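Duplicate of earlier report; Cofilin input re-posted below.
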Amino acid sequence: MSLEIQTRNMQERTFCKWLNTKLEANGYPPMTSLVKDLSDGVRLIQLMEIMGDTSLGRYNKNPRMRVQKAENATKALEFITSRGVKLTNIGPEDIIDGNLKLILGMIWTLILRFTIADISEEGLSAKEGLLLWCQRKTAPYKEVDVQDFSHSWSDGLALCALIHCHRPDLLDYDKLDKGDRHGNTALAFQIAAEHLGIPQLLEVEDLCDSARPDERSVMTYIASFFHAFSSMGTSDRIFIIRVSVFMGNADQAETESRRVENFADLMQSVWVIRTDYERRARLLLANLEEVQNQWAASVFTGVYIDAKEEQSNFNTYKQTTKRTWVTERQDVITLFGNVQTKLKTYSLAEYVPPKGLAPSDLDDAWQRLLKSEAHRSRGINAEIRKIKEDLRKKFADLANAFEKRLHDVSVELTMIEGPLEDQQQEAKEIQKRIPLLSEDLAVVAAAEAECMAANVEENDYTVFTWQDLEFELELLVQNIAKKISFIDNQIVSRNMTNLTPAQLEQFESTFRYFDKDETNTLNQMEMMAALASLGIVYSDQDMDFIYEQLVADYGAVTFEAFINLLVGITEDQTTPDQLLESFQGIAHAKPFVTELDLRLAHIPQTAIDYLVKAMPSSPNESGEPEYDYASGVGVNADCLTAYQDLKLGKKHKFVIYQLNAQNTEIVVEKTSSGNYEEFLESLPEDQPRFAVFDFEFEKEGAGKRNKITFFSWSPDGSKIKQKMVYASSKDALRRSLQGVALEIQGTDLEEVSYETVLDKANKGA
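Output:
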């Protein structure tokens, strides 16, 4: 069982027993269930009439309908509220529907009001006063250490100490077995019920076996001890006074002179006490009025630090000055009581304080102080909430406005159009506004710092933080710089009339790729890498000279300097890309050309004769040759012979092909009749290859099958240039090998494993 459920059950039992003591004392039958017995409102009205010592008038004594029960519950709740008891979140429907949590809270409020609220010990009231009373009464007992209303009562010794302190005749504390927790608790319960008239509101298990005895239940029970012993103490004092008076009259003759002397001493002491009372009462009233006047004159500045200082000063007042006044008030009231007691002892007229100094005046002034304190506390809290709300709105307004400006600038940047020079000028004008935006962002940062200083963590008026806006501003700065660089590069590209569009695109993408810091310039290492990626390589000495010359001419290796350098290098040269574009145009985007395509392009016959001899070819379905212009790699005749020996003659199990050392022709590297394991061992780990394998397998329900499988082997460890050459040469070989049934691409042994190939072969079989 969870601690929460244990606490609820303990409260329900204790509170029900406490209410039953009220009901049974007035002739009503006890309740068995708070939820059931209070649901119609009848018992609640009876309890209120008992506690309030008044009648609530007519009500439904046998309600049957829900509306009648609601009327009863409402009447009881209104009576509780009229007695100054504040109820929270409970209505008649909660009582009718048996909301146990709220019902327990209501009963606890009643216990506080009618049992615990009037407890006072040295100026402390309610819980603190009751705890101090318990601590003082049990202080002489070394095994008892009362620190709370929970664990401190779990061994029964604190209860036995309270009883022994006031009625040592009821139990011998020294003879208790200090380790018998259950026995000590049960003994205290029994003595309290039988000899002190204190009903047993708790069970032994509630204190001894609970992980944490419920504080409210324990307080309710201990308050019964306070009231029982306080009442007994008053009777004892009255008895002593009466005995003293009786003894004083025993020998009147001998004491007449002494009586006059005592009377004079009495009146003198009364005068001293009365004077002290009036002086201290005036001073206390003046102090109470002064602090209230100070609070009334106080004006909030609207600054969070100042409001927190006011709150700190108020809390310090409550913990120091007010506690001093609480003690002083109690002492002053005690002085007044002492005066009256002395006068009453000699049947003298009661002391009537000067106007405005009566105990009732002190009580009225104290109540005004409490109201002023509540008003002051609410005022400070409201000011702090207002300041926090104002800070939220201030930051939100600044952040939202700043984000809108960033958005507007971003939109303005994307809307730039017209001649490139005009676009360039507009972009630079936008760039000039960045410093002002940075200054405004600092204002946003300051507003966020104010919010953090005031512990404002959430803000429903904006979704932005200063960090969000800083990131967006940095992104905008980068976009503006990129836009300007792009426009500058377009102006340069526009003026380069001696380069093809494809060349310009290639050179521009290369420049952007190696411009790692996006400054639209290249350092020497970046320029060297960019040229190398285009196939242009210089010695270190030449590269130093070229870089220094460009910096001297342009101030840095800008896009314009880079393009002009490439123009100087490639001018009047036909690049491989240009040649490839020309062939693609003649072939109408086909991966091959025919002799007819070349004639239609009006190429001279002598050139056509050379091209058809130089380009690798393969026959189409009509037997006409198709020339591979893309790879420029030929297929050696031995490649086809070895393939035919595998396909038709069954002389080989597999053939492995490679490019020759000049990368101009595909040749046979190896033929073998070995198995698939030997085939895999023949594939190099760090070099691409082509291969065909006569793959034999058995398909379920269809017998043995054979599939000639073409392999394009390009392991991850291969050099990039090798991969590119083999990739561009593949079609030349593949078109030459007629009858291939399955094609496998492999970059590691897993992708060309026997199981992988078998799976693909079965799917297509």
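The chain has 29 helices and twelve strands.

Merging into the original ticket.
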